[in-house]
Write a structure and sequence with these properties.
Helix 1 packs antiparallel against helix 2. The chain starts with a helix and ends with a helix. Helices cover 92% and strands 0% of the residues. The chain has one domain. The model has no long low-confidence stretch (mean pLDDT 86).
Length: 59
């Protein structure tokens, strides 16, 4: 997911460099959405890992 965010970010930078402001704004928005989804999934994964690790320590 983070790779998609970085890819769309690079596309938006290249589009902005060539003057395609509409495409640059659209790809920057997509990159931002992908990044936020990545952060949420990372936090969920981290919390579930900590919860499972806590189960092993109590047994």
């Amino acid at each position: 997911m983070l790779n998609y965010a970085l890819t769309f970010f690079l596309f938006s930078l290249i589009a902005a460099l060539f003057g395609f402001s509409g495409i640059a704004a659209a790809t920057a928005g997509i990159a931002q959405i992908c990044f936020y989804i990545f952060i949420v999934l990372f936090i969920i994964s981290l919390l579930t890992h900590v919860a499972h690790r806590g189960d092993r320590l109590t047994k």
